[in-house]
Amino acid sequence: MSDFTGLKFHSFNDFFTRKKDITFDSEPTHFISPADSLLSVYEITENAKFHIKGFDYTLEDFFEPESFGMNKEDTTELFSGGLCLVFRLCATDYHRYCYVDSGSQNGNHFIQGSLYSVQPLAAENFRIYTKNRRSWTILETEHFGKIAQIEVGAFSVGGIKNNIECGNFNKGDEKGYFDLHGSTIVLLVQRDKIKLLEEIIKITSLGQEYRVKIGQFIAEKL
Prior knowledge:
Elements: H1 12-16, E1 30-32, E2 37-43, E3 49-52, E4 55-58, H2 59-63, E5 83-89, E6 96-98, E7 103-106, E8 109-111, H3 120-123, E9 134-141, E10 146-152, E11 159-162, E12 166-169, E13 174-179, E14 183-189, E15 194-196, H4 198-204, E16 210-212, E17 217-221
Antiparallel strand pairs: 1-17, 2-5, 2-16, 3-4, 5-14, 6-13, 7-9, 7-12, 8-9, 9-10, 10-14, 11-13, 15-17
């Protein structure tokens, strides 16, 4: 709480969504974490699937492009052969998140969904990432191609609050925040755009989560 000295809170949600100044790695070719979280890494196969905790997920299920009058080519085919980065926020984590690079976006796509837990045990028993409430957008970044950022609500997280609908943004700018308790951010990165740091590859390849902080350097541009 040393980062929040002097702030007054009128409700628990005020406390939970408290804001602080963040620092981030500003090197243009460094890919940063969007949030304080536990990071897991999965490969997206050529047929636009990825495997988490015993379940195969298709990107088409993930995005539901037909709900927004879009073609599969607009979403799923962009990320075949790329990486799926899952940032799981715990209740004690800072629940605001930032942009990982400078660029632009053109619209947020909200899927009502449900509010199941995102704890690992839940993920092993249910396809939560295609069932939970979520908001996604395609980021046109300056250094890492197109990135899909998906904010996933979870048990007792009623709100996903993004700051802009369309327009330009800078690396490290706040993108938005979650209201109350645990939640997840998923980044889908195109093939051959980044290389994760060796320590992260080593830990996540064992099926373990890697602790990261918002703005932390986690990968290099290829």
